[in-house]
Write a structure and sequence with these properties.
Chain lengths: 471, 254
């Protein structure tokens, strides 16, 4: 029989025992709905978690360090054992940075400039960690939402303060247990004010001082010429343009900087870096050598590829993709559990299909006999029952997706009411991606067809003589 | 259906041939010999009546010829096909294309209209929809039910239902019409009407007809040969001159 005829006959047969078949289909749809509701909640929570994390810039960033940098974690050191020894590896200098920046899928690669120095405000010194921000950090929602503005340009002598540092400047530490101070209140007296930063500048020397005592100024000495520099104490005035309520834990990179400078400004200051002393004997030119570089990848999914490419260049990499692995595992397990619980309802519904179709065989014994007598093959009868099971599966699947979607919506709505009452920000915890829709309907069809196996086989084997004798 | 010789071309051709045909059922300890060594022959285009009392095995013989049942032993060859050797699939094809059946209880599908009932065999034969509809309305026209093609069987009288069943039996242009007590549920007037139609098919379309009945009078009026069965055995086979008056112009409507 042709598919079209099968479908037509199957739907006609379903309509004939409308109540029973509708109830069976409702059973399937409840099963599918529970599956969809469970999974969409799991997916929604996962998306909520990763949305927050991706927006913080954690998941599209790879931190590159030279293998000579010994401040690695234990795991990184394990990796190093198989790679080149620290002494042989490449220097993380400007040419390396450019090379990384030209890798495919890389948006930008910028040096991580961090230093501890003294800031004077209101003639009081404050020692703190300072970090440079690339202009791309503008889109980070922590800076988008803060009082004040992001840096007017990448070289502007401006500064953004972390909230806790603003509290420190104002001498306002919130009493323990009390509500935190609002950022806007902190920002009001500080925006537009000036800070004075004192720092140690790495200035190029007019003449290499260490070479003067040598017997002969040979070629090797000239190669080292760029490595010589003097350290000069400098001051820089900085205007406070913003106060950000950043969670220091969530900022990219391992440090907990409390004050942020524009990247190009920070580079132009040539602040003495902790690694400078260690690199002095190796730097072959006067190009800047970086302790670490942050690489922004176009898409979090490409982090692994980029990481591998950089590792091949001989550097150590770290990304939160590694750290998020356990988070992913958690969600995979959660999804699996939700899937199992959701499937249970569908399993119960499949028993309903078997029952309905077996009942239909008893009821339509004679009809099956007639069809066989006028020329229907076993296959035709089997396919017809399969088509009926399949039709119930698809209809139940579609209804179930709709129902599951509605349940998800209601759960989300109710949760948000609760969250608002608890003065928390409402969000979306539930998501029905298209693949889940396809998957749910497909799964429902599959379960129905499997449930139809036994009844269809039984109907096909029916002896027409017996079936027609039965009155 | 192409292997069969045209029925009108040679009336002496054998359409159905059975040799020592047996069909035994086991019911607990006892074996019921529904058909017990029946050997018969039906010529192409012949109108044969299978006569016998209830339980004589006449319906079982018909089911074996129809390919609805398989013999326990012996052979039944229809239009050169040894039915016992056909697979289930081939047997279904045989029923679809070679055999048309009518039953005492009409056996129309209650949930379908007459047109849908009549075209059902064409669905199994995978005939295109438009051609199906043409053929179904032609067949219903032939039995005078075209006006009622969209009615359900329950809205029709017994005679009309049996006419629809005849239209369905005819739709795939089979060579063989097998009728199991076709008038058993009808009054004598409607019964005559149906039998006239069966005879029309036999004479005009050249179909071989095997009719099971327990009414000897009916057989004498229409059949060219009467085969008597008792306890699953063939006890007599005799030629008969049909007595029913053919009061109609050939090809005309009643």
């Amino acid at each position: 029989m042709k598919i079209q005829d099968l479908t037509e006959l199957a739907l006609r047969n379903l309509r004939e025992s409308l109540l029973r078949n509708s109830l069976t289909t409702v059973g399937i749809s409840v099963g599918v709905a529970s599956l969809v509701a469970m999974l969409s909640l799991g997916i929604g929570l996962q998306q909520l978690a990763s949305r927050r994390l991706v927006k913080s810039g954690l998941f599209d960033t790879v931190v590159v360090t030279s293998r000579r940098d010994l401040r690695g974690t234990g795991r990184e050191r394990d990796q190093e054992r198989s790679g080149p020894t620290p002494g042989e590896s490449r220097v993380l200098d400007e040419s390396a940075r450019l090379e990384i920046e030209h890798l495919p899928n890389v948006l930008e690669a910028y040096p991580d400039i961090r230093f501890i120095t003294e800031l004077r405000y209101d003639d009081k010194p404050h020692l703190t960690m300072i970090s440079a921000l690339p202009s791309s950090a503008r889109s980070n929602d922590a800076f988008e939402a803060m009082p004040g503005n992001f840096f007017s340009s990448d070289t502007a002598p401006e500064v953004i303060l972390q909230k806790t540092f603003a509290e420190e400047l104002l001498g306002k530490t919130p009493p323990r247990g009390a509500d935190e101070l609002r950022v806007a209140d902190l920002a009001k007296p500080l925006l537009g004010k000036e800070l004075t930063m004192r720092y140690a500048q790495r200035a190029p020397s007019p003449a290499p001082p260490s070479a003067s005592g040598a017997d002969s100024a040979n070629a090797a000495d000239r190669d080292l010429a760029g490595a010589a520099y003097s350290v000069v104490s400098r001051e820089q005035k900085l205007k406070i343009v913003g106060v950000a309520d950043l969670d220091p834990e969530s900022m990219r990179g391992p440090t907990r900087a409390k004050v942020f400078l524009p990247l190009k400004l920070a580079e132009s200051l040539h602040v003495m870096q902790p690694t400078d002393l260690r690199e002095i004997s190796r730097a072959a030119s006067d190009q800047p050598v970086y302790s670490s570089i942050s690489v922004r990848v176009k898409n979090p999914t490409q982090v692994q590829v980029v990481e591998d490419a950089i590792k091949k260049m001989g550097f150590t990499t770290f990304s939160l993709l590694d750290a998020s692995q356990s988070l992913r595992t958690f969600f995979k397990v959660l999804d699996l559990f939700l899937l199992i619980f959701g499937s249970l309802a569908l399993a119960v519904a499949s028993i309903g299909i078997v029952n309905t179709l077996v009942m239909a065989i008893l009821e339509r014994r004679r009809e099956i006999g007639i069809m066989k007598a006028i020329g229907a093959s076993d296959g035709d009868v089997k396919k017809l029952f399969f088509a009926e099971a399949g039709a119930m599966g698809i209809l139940g699947g579609i209804a179930g997706v709709g129902l599951g979607w509605a349940i998800g919506r209601i759960i989300n709505f109710a949760t948000n009411i609760y969250l608002r009452r608890e003065s928390l920000t409402p969000d979306t915890f539930w998501s029905v991606p298209w693949w889940l829709v396809v998957l749910a309907i497909g799964f429902s069809l599959l379960v129905s067809l499997v449930s139809g196996l036994y009844p269809a086989g039984r109907a096909a084997k029916l002896d027409p003589v017996q079936a027609l004798r039965y009155e | 259906m192409t292997t069969a010789p045209a029925a009108s071309a040679a009336t002496s051709t054998v359409a159905i041939h059975s040799e020592n045909l047996c069909r035994h059922y086991r019911m607990g300890e006892t074996v019921i010999r529904a058909v017990d060594g029946v050997s018969l022959e039906v010529r192409a285009g012949e109108f044969v009546a299978l006569l016998g009392s209830s339980g004589s095995g006449k319906s079982s013989v018909l089911n074996l010829i129809a390919g609805l049942d398989r013999p326990t032993s012996g052979r039944v060859v229809v239009q050169d096909r040894d039915l016992a050797k056909l697979s289930r699939e081939e047997l279904a094809k045989y029923r679809l294309h070679v055999v048309g059946m009518v039953f005492q209880s009409f056996n129309l599908i209650a949930s379908m209209t007459l047109a849908e009932n009549v075209e059902l065999p064409l669905r199994f034969a995978e005939v295109d929809r438009s051609r199906r509809q043409t053929l179904a309305s032609q067949a219903l026209e032939r039995v005078g039910l075209r006006a009622r093609m969209n009615h359900r069987p329950s809205e029709l009288s017994g005679g009309e239902q049996q006419r629809a069943a005849l239209a369905r039996a005819l739709i795939n242009r089979p060579q063989l019409l097998l009728a199991d007590e076709p008038t058993g549920n009808l009054d004598s007037h409607t019964g005559t009407e149906i039998m006239n139609m069966v005879r029309e098919f036999n004479r005009e379309l050249g179909m071989t007809v095997v009719m099971v009945t327990h009414e000897r009078a009916l057989a004498e009026r229409y059949a060219e040969r009467m085969i008597f069965l008792a306890d699953g055995k063939l006890i007599d086979s005799r030629a008969n001159a049909p007595t029913a008056v053919d009061d109609r112009v050939p090809g005309g409507q009643p």
